[in-house]
Amino acid sequence: MSSEAAPAQNLIQTPAAARCAHDFQVNCNNCRLNTICLPLALDIAQVEQLDRIIQRSRPLQKGEHIYRQDEDFQSVYAVRSGSVKGYSITDNGQEQVTGFYFPGEILGMDGIAKNHHASSARALETSSICEIPFDKLGELSQRIPSLQKHFFQLMSQEIAEDQQLLTLLSKNTADQRVAALLLSISARNKRRKLSAANFRLPMSRTDIGNYLGLTVETVSRVFSRFQKLGVLGVDNKEITIIDIESLRAVADGSDIV
Hints:
Blueprint: H1 34-37, H2 44-53, E1 55-56, E2 65-67, E3 75-81, E4 84-89, E5 95-101, E6 106-107, E7 120-123, E8 128-133, H3 134-143, H4 145-170, H5 174-191, E9 198-200, H6 205-212, H7 216-228, E10 232-235, E11 238-241, H8 244-251
């Protein structure tokens, strides 16, 4: 299917996929990410109530959209496997990458304020998504106060991450920007109990450059420089953080010793 795919509500009509890590028949109780997505205070019965309102479709393929900019806001979404790119189209028709989302992370809350999405979201690879209708979530949150508090925290986290992006883009050098992004991905992997030092970048160098306000050539040069300095191991999209303290020093604006 091309990248001009239907919105999430139509994804159930996509061709069936073999059972795999992206299995859409999983539920909240047996999902390996439930400790990240769900409030710890929920008991089994409350988790089952939430599970009943969540819609799970067949996995999205690379390039398929979850939602598009200016579409009516109806749901928020949780990434269960794979990865997603958020982007918007500027007034002059250019794509601006606004974020990358990994398993256990929530997206789509940009539509709450004006009842339509301010950006689009597209799968970077085969990905499984949980769709949570916002009106049903609101009704359930009234019965389960801890759930409401949890989603307020998620919205607050999204605001904080937007502020982090502004800080990231205000950094003076390309080295600082790339280092800060890699440290962010490392920390998010650690939160999911995955390796903080070895990971695959699902996005292209072009997407990284777009997100960080750099050319693709500059991004490639930074990766090569970090590799020569012994800070990173780079094999195409496979990244190994060899010296995380030096990477932190770069992100903070210090020179590598």
